[in-house]
Every structure is written in structure tokens, then in C-alpha cells.
């Protein structure tokens, strides 16, 4: 199956500084992929390269095997840009005029179900309503890949839940591929099934969430034995508290001495470990799911 998004040696430089460098990853079609990283990690640069708003300085990026065409890609920026002076109906007309694959019936039905009036000005809507209108415009394009840059930024918890629920409903109905960036891991844990961790302009880890969680363990034991254990395993991060030390290691469930306890990792454990250790070696890239 052709990947929804594939980057090979991708890089973007501004002057002498690289915002993104030697980025190689492959996201299978039909996945909801989370792009996670600190501010300045290169997330927005990667998203802009994926949707064609930027050109690479190095390498290449393909969407469903194509490097140039982006007609079946929809992008929702962090500030959810809408023309405040337009009514919602005028916003839909604008979207229809720009997108040959526009589904006007879907857009109107979705907004009606959300109780958002077509006659209201977008500038007068609440933050959650603006986010829903912007998401509706993106979905009504009927894209194969939907790219979202911090779609939940500046929304209250109720609005965040509503936006993610609507997004997952669209994925379930259409098989849409999604790539979204976020700082809030808890928003991603029950919605995203693929994870990309970006730090310092480089990909640290990329793969199916279930496989990544199964492939890591939290190992806790005597601090005096930690070096010997770490020498046997690929350790991502270490944390010492008194006479005990915890290692987050890339290991299924290693056999250690009786003084050591092994526990599964959470998505938050995994992401934070890689973000705290920017030099941690990335996992081998898994084969694409079929």
C-alpha cells in the first residue's frame, strides 16, 4: 500500500539554521498520526512541507506517492483562519468555489448537527464553533490526507473533546488519513494510532502506537546495578531516586534479577522520555501495516 506521507532525507533551512534536517519517515494510509515535539522542534515546518506551503532545501516528501500534487490534501492551521466578516454560508460558498471535490451537502449537514447557524458571522462565533467551521471546511474538500497544526490550541476542554470526536467520526466514515501536531499527549492517547516524535529538527521515533508501547519497558531496580543492565539493553532514558534507578528501555520484557521490576510504559512516559533525551537513538522503522 502506498504511504499517505513519506519523507526521505527531508530538510528545510532558513539562512544557516536548519528547522528540519535529515527527516525520514513513512506514515501508512488510513492512520491517525500524532506529530509530537517541543516548540521549535520543526513540527510546523514538516507540516508545511507536507502540504506544499514550503519547498524542501534537501530531500523529498511524497503524499500518496506524489511529490507535486496536493489537490486531495486539506490543511488546518493553528489559528484556524476564517474571514471574520463572512457569514458561515459565505465561508462555505468560498470553499466550494476553490475546491472541485467540495461536498456542500456534507458541510451543511455537519454544521446543522452542531447547531451552528449559516447566517452568523464567523467573527462572532465562539472558539469551539470557529474550530468546527474550519474543520468542516477542511473535511468538505473530501481530502485523502488531512493535516492539522495544533487543532486544539486555545480551546476549552469541552470544545477540545467535541473537535476530536468530530474528527474521529469523519475518519470512521471515510477512511481518511490524518496527521496532526499537538503538545498535549492526553488528547492523542485514545485517538491516534501512529506516533512521530520530532526533536531538534530530527525524527526520534516513528511507528504504530501499540507496537511502540509493547516495545518499551520501565525497569526499576538497585542503582548500583543500573549500569550493568543499561549495558545489555538500548536505554532511552534514566532516572535515579536515592538508591533506586528507573530505566526506560527498548525491550519487550527482559529477564532481569529478582531485585528488578518491569512495567509497561504509557504514551506519556514514552513521549516525555524521547523529548528529554534528544540524542536517544531512534527505533528501526517498522514495516508498513497492510
TrEMBL record:
PROSITE patterns: ABC_TRANSPORTER_2. Coiled coil: none annotated. InterPro entries: AAA+_ATPase (IPR003593), ABC_transporter-like_ATP-bd (IPR003439), ABC_Transporter_VariousFunc (IPR051782), P-loop_NTPase (IPR027417). Residues 5-225 form the ABC transporter domain. GO terms for molecular function: ATP binding; ATP hydrolysis activity. Keywords: ATP-binding, Nucleotide-binding, Transport. It comes from the Bacteria. This is ABC transporter ATP-binding protein. CDD domains: ABC_DR_subfamily_A. Pfam families: ABC_tran. The keyword Transport applies.
Amino acid at each position: 500500500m502506498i504511504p499517505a506521507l513519506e519523507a526521505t532525507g527531508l530538510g528545510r533551512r532558513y539562512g544557516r539554521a536548519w528547522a528540519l534536517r535529515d527527516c525520514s519517515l513513512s506514515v501508512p494510509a488510513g492512520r491517525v498520526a500524532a506529530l509530537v515535539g517541543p516548540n521549535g522542534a520543526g513540527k510546523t515546518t514538516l507540516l508545511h512541507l507536507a502540504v506544499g506551503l514550503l519547498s524542501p532545501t534537501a530531500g523529498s516528501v511524497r503524499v500518496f506517492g506524489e511529490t507535486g500534487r496536493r489537490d486531495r490534501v486539506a490543511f488546518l492551521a493553528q489559528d484556524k483562519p476564517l474571514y471574520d466578516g463572512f457569514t458561515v454560508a459565505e465561508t462555505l460558498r468560498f470553499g466550494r468555489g476553490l475546491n472541485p471535490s467540495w461536498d456542500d451537502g456534507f458541510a451543511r449537514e455537519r454544521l446543522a448537527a452542531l447547531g451552528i447557524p449559516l447566517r452568523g458571522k464567523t467573527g462572532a462565533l465562539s472558539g469551539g464553533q470557529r474550530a468546527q467551521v474550519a474543520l468542516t471546511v477542511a473535511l468538505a474538500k473530501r481530502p485523502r490526507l488531512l493535516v492539522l497544526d495544533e487543532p486544539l490550541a486555545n480551546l476549552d476542554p469541552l470544545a477540545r473533546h467535541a473537535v476530536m470526536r468530530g474528527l474521529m467520526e469523519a475518519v470512521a466514515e471515510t477512511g481518511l488519513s490524518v496527521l496532526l501536531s499537538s503538545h498535549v499527549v492526553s488528547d492523542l492517547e485514545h485517538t491516534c494510532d501512529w506516533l512521530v516524535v520530532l526533536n531538534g529538527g530530527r525524527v526520534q521515533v516513528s511507528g504504530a502506537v501499540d507496537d511502540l508501547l509493547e516495545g518499551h519497558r520501565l525497569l526499576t531496580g538497585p542503582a548500583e546495578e543500573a549500569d550493568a543492565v543499561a549495558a545489555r539493553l538500548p536505554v532511552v532514558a534514566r532516572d535515579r531516586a536515592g538508591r533506586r534507578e528507573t530505566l526506560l528501555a527498548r525491550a519487550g520484557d527482559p529477564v532481569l534479577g529478582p531485585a528488578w521490576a518491569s512495567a509497561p510504559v504509557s504514551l506519556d512516559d514514552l513521549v516525555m522520555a524521547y523529548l528529554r533525551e534528544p540524542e536517544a537513538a531512534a527505533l528501526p522503522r517498522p514495516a508498513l501495516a497492510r
